[in-house]
């Protein structure tokens, strides 16, 4: 089993819940934010590779991506910086498919591997189109996380789970990334449909906006992803605020599900 | 022209690169379109509405003065005479009729020059559907009249301020809306692009242009034209007219703007749900297109065009803004027809190449009228 999945399973087996923050690579202060998040109770960290046309992202991550691109961030510069991060949790890139396609499947997988990346999330690469990338990723020992959406019919979910490595990304709502006032009903509903289908950890992302919602989602799921809530803090305040926030969410999860 | 493969591919182009949330919607749409297209009642309804509401068939017009001047027989397919002033109405009437059949209550659309937005707002008003149109903030400014027109028709128009604030960003925003509203909403995509089944479905709705033109040319001239020319942004009017002639000996020419030459300068990439030629930088970031015409300001192109280019069946030359401005005025003065700036691209190529076209019959798709561009041209020419 690849190290991403074994790290996440270790948390689950110890009784705790999985917490995965997302940080936009190339954004001012992002490396410090990753280190602060790693030191505050993260089980893995997603690093966003900014793309010009991020169709799955709402205003906060769009702005972060644009700022990172304006500052000259490229997939190569971000992966170079990743090597110098020196954090002890598995790192996962989240990137749109054209970044992968343009580099070439084998080449991109090998670039990730050389940078010490453990997994990849490609939100615009659905099951039917994922084959060639997944093969290259498997060969380079990169875990390809598959997304499952609330719109998926029942017969689609087992196929997604079967192809998922690392964890299954259970999309919390119909919509793009961003904070919402309440957790959508679809978040727990979909996680509840996925859990009986797979031993791979089921982690809810998109629309999980604070510690309270993280606890609510984790009643059904194995844990949560924190994206816009983290990136907004990095944009508005800085890396320290990211560390504080992740510590707060970890504290709330530990309160309900203490890690043995 | 044939159907795409089971995975929605024309050769190695096309596909369905969308977030998981949209996969079931694309599958449902594909099935609904297949059923509707095979259903004589749907086809009859569509035909009737195209005839009685949009004014089809559109005529062909031979340009005697301009033709004599250029030494060619120049024939226009007059899509500018359709209701709402462009070819876009063919597709939106098809898609909104389909949306109704699927039980959708709302459509979203993107627009560049505003032609597809106006057509969508029109069809939504006719069919009793709610309509929201996304338009880049830059385009909202340069096409103010069309914005007002859409609002008159009852549509909500939202200016998109992200990215390059033009057509590609309007597509992104429409897709984001659709991801959130997919259960009640149909995405009325305006060109032969996007995820399967859109490139194929939109082509089928526009092939009436080529089918009519072929019959009209054959009646009028007793033969097929030697050359068929159309402008290409996403490529819907070009695919529409090409579909009538792809199995003839006619040369097929899709004219791109020099600043938005996806086929001419792009390499294969994936954006907006499809694999196709795409203008991008060395890391795969999509580049911004720059053209005098908002409707062609698109860094990608429909996948079937990429396929036709890859097998050498169609050619995709470019023309400059300056050539377009000249062609725009030339058609107005010699023929009394003000073309859309988009179509002036097609004419600009014909003018430039006329030396090598002597004596030939050239069919050009006049896909839209130029009223919307008059204010912009007034500024440029003053």
Question: How would you characterize this protein structure?
Answer:
The complex is a heterodimer of chains A (260) and B (382). Chain A is built from 12 helices and 8 strands. By secondary structure, chain A is of the alpha/beta class. Chain A has one domain: Aldolase class I (TIM Barrel). Chain A has an 8-stranded parallel beta barrel, surrounded by 9 helices. In chain A, α10 packs parallel to α12. Chain A is globular and about 40 Å long. The mean pLDDT of chain A is 97. Chain B is an alpha/beta fold and 382 residues long. Chain B has 2 domains: 139 residues, Rossmann fold (3-Layer(aba) Sandwich), CATH 3.40.50.1100; 205 residues, Rossmann fold (3-Layer(aba) Sandwich), CATH 3.40.50. Helices cover 45% and strands 17% of the residues of chain B. In chain B, strands 3, 4, 9, 10, 13, 14 and 15 form a 7-stranded mixed sheet that branches. A 4-stranded parallel sheet of chain B has the order 7-6-5-8, sandwiched between helices. Chain B has a two-stranded antiparallel ribbon with strand order 1-2. In chain B, a hairpin with a 2-residue loop joins β1 and β2. The radius of gyration of chain B is 19 Å and the shape is globular. The mean pLDDT of chain B is 96. At the A-B interface, α3 and α5 of A face α1, α8 and β11 of B.
Characterize this entry briefly.
Chain A contains twelve helices and eight strands.
Name the descriptors.
heterodimer; A: alpha/beta; 12 helices; B: about 375 residues; alpha/beta; Rossmann fold; seven-stranded mixed beta sheet; four-stranded parallel beta sheet; 15 strands
Give the topology.
The complex is a heterodimer of chains A (260) and B (382).
Chain A: H1 3-13, E1 18-24, H2 30-38, E2 45-48, H3 59-70, H4 75-83, E3 91-94, H5 97-103, H6 105-114, E4 119-121, H7 131-139, E5 143-148, H8 157-163, E6 168-171, H9 185-194, E7 202-205, H10 211-218, E8 223-226, H11 228-236, H12 239-256
Parallel strand pairs in A: 1-2, 1-8, 2-3, 3-4, 4-5, 5-6, 6-7, 7-8
Chain B: E1 9-10, E2 13-14, H1 23-37, H2 40-52, E3 60-62, H3 64-70, E4 73-78, H4 88-101, E5 106-111, H5 115-127, E6 130-136, H6 137-142, H7 144-152, E7 156-160, H8 167-181, E8 185-187, H9 198-221, E9 227-231, H10 236-242, E10 251-257, H11 262-265, E11 267-271, E12 274-278, H12 303-310, E13 314-315, E14 318-319, H13 321-335, H14 341-353, E15 361-366, H15 374-381
Parallel strand pairs in B: 4-15, 5-6, 5-8, 6-7, 9-10, 9-15, 10-13, 10-14
Antiparallel strand pairs in B: 1-2, 3-4, 11-12
Helix pairs in contact in B: 2-4, 4-5, 4-9, 5-7, 9-10, 13-14
